[in-house]
Design brief:
Number of helices: 3
Distance between the termini: 46 Å
Strand content: over 45%
CATH topology: Lipocalin
Strand order of the largest sheet: 1-4-5-8-9-10-11-12-13-14
Radius of gyration: 25 Å
CATH class: Mainly Beta
Length: 350
C-alpha cells in the first residue's frame, strides 16, 4: 500500500508541477517582453483549416501556432545508463567470511536502443500517441581472480581458481497515450504502458580440471498499468526552437518470475529453483526535449530522460535474498532502478 500511495503522490506532484510551470494565457494577452501570444487560427484565413481540415501543401507552416499536422512520426535512439545495484556482499571466502564480491561492484556502460513514436491528431484537437523505446543489453563485467574456497550461498565452491561475473539488463517500454491540449502551453496525457524488464546476473566459477560452473540469477518483470502526466512548453517564442518538459507517473501490476540455477560447461543443469510474484509497482518518467524545426515537415530532436522503476525484481536483490534465506526458491520484489541519458532523433510531420 505504501508504494501505491507513493505513486499517487508523485503522479499528483508531477501534474501539479506541470500546471504551475505553465502560465495560462488567452489569445491576445501580452507578456513582459512585448511578445504577443496568438491563437492557432490567427495566421490562417479559413476556420476549416484551423480545425485540421484542408491543411494542404498550399498552407505554409506557421512555426509555433499554425495549421496542425495530422501525423507526426519520430524516429531516433535513447542512450541511457543504468545505476549501480544497491550494495550488499554476495560472495565470501570460506573459511574467513571475507568479502569477495559485492552487488555494487557492477558499473553499467552507456547503452543505446531504438526510440520510435507515432502521433495522430484528431479533428477535436486531441491526439493519440504510440511510443516504443528499448534499452538493450546494458552490461557490466567483473573479474575477481582466484578466490580459493568461497560461498555464494546457497552454493559453496572448493578448489576454484577463477571467478568472473556478468550482469546484463534489458528494458522494453511500449505506451499508448491520449493527449488533450489544456492550454497553449500544457497538454494533459493519460494512457496505458507495458514494460518488460529482464535482469540477469551470472557468476562463472573456474576449476583446475578444467571445468566451469555458472551460477545464474534470472529475473523477468512484466509491468502493465495506467499512467497520467503532462507535456509542458517551457520555451516557445514562435521560432524554430522549442523546449518541452514531459512528466509521467503510473501505478502498475508487476508479474515477476525468478529462476536461480547452476549449469556446467556442458550445459547440464546441476540445480534449479525459482519463485513468482504478482504485486504493485511504480514507474516515473521525466524528460526535457528540444526541437529545432529545419523545414516545415522535418525537425531535429534532442534531450534528456530519467526513468524510475520501483517494486521490480532485480537479480542483485534476489541473489542477496537467496543468500540470506539460504534458499533458491525466492524472489526479491523490492528493487528500485533508475535509468538516465540522452534522446536523439528526427521528427517528420504532414
Amino acid at each position: 500500500m505504501s508504494k501505491l500511495l507513493r505513486a499517487m503522490a508523485v503522479g499528483y506532484f508531477g501534474l501539479t508541477a506541470g500546471t504551475t510551470l505553465a502560465v495560462e494565457r488567452r489569445a491576445g494577452d501580452s507578456i513582459a517582453d512585448g511578445i504577443e501570444l496568438t491563437s492557432a487560427c490567427d495566421s490562417i484565413a479559413s476556420d476549416e483549416c484551423c480545425n485540421g481540415v484542408g491543411c494542404g501543401e498550399d498552407v505554409s507552416l506557421d512555426l509555433g501556432c499554425g495549421c496542425p499536422s495530422l501525423w507526426t512520426v519520430r524516429a531516433g535512439a535513447v542512450i541511457m545508463k543504468r545505476e549501480r545495484p544497491n550494495a550488499g556482499v554476495l560472495a565470501v571466502s570460506d573459511p574467513g567470511n571475507n568479502p569477495i564480491s559485492n552487488t555494487a561492484d557492477f558499473a553499467f556502460d552507456w547503452t543505446g536502443g531504438p526510440d520510435v513514436s507515432i502521433v495522430r491528431q484528431t479533428a477535436s484537437g486531441n491526439a493519440w500517441e504510440l511510443r516504443y523505446f528499448g534499452i538493450l543489453d546494458a552490461e557490466a563485467n567483473r573479474d575477481y581472480g582466484d578466490p580459493g574456497n568461497f560461498n555464494i550461498l546457497p552454493y559453496g565452491f572448493n578448489t576454484s581458481n577463477s571467478l568472473t561475473a556478468n550482469y546484463e539488463s534489458t528494458l522494453h517500454s511500449t505506451e499508448l497515450n491520449w493527449l488533450h491540449p489544456f492550454s497553449q502551453r500544457v497538454t494533459w496525457l493519460a494512457g496505458f504502458r507495458w514494460i518488460e524488464l529482464n535482469d540477469h546476473l551470472t557468476y562463472t566459477v573456474g576449476f583446475p580440471s578444467p571445468s566451469i560452473i555458472d551460477v545464474n540469477y534470472n529475473m523477468q518483470n512484466h509491468l502493465y498499468g495506467a499512467q497520467t502526466g503532462a507535456d509542458v512548453a517551457l520555451w516557445n517564442r514562435g521560432g524554430r526552437l522549442t523546449v518541452n518538459g514531459i512528466v509521467k507517473a503510473g501505478v502498475y501490476g508487476n508479474s515477476a518470475d525468478s529462476n536461480i540455477y547452476e549449469i556446467d560447461n556442458d550445459g547440464d543443469v546441476l540445480s534449479d529453483g525459482g519463485a513468482s510474484s504478482s504485486h504493485v509497482a511504480f514507474v516515473g518518467d521525466l524528460s526535457f526535449v528540444a526541437t529545432y524545426q529545419v523545414t516545415p515537415h522535418f525537425a531535429l530532436r534532442g534531450g534528456y530522460q530519467l526513468l524510475w522503476l520501483d517494486g521490480v525484481a532485480l537479480a542483485s536483490n534476489t541473489a542477496l535474498l537467496a543468500k540470506k534465506e539460504i534458499d533458491k526458491n525466492v524472489i526479491g520484489t523490492d528493487g528500485s532502478l533508475f535509468y538516465n541519458g540522452a534522446l536523439v532523433g528526427g521528427e517528420f510531420t504532414w
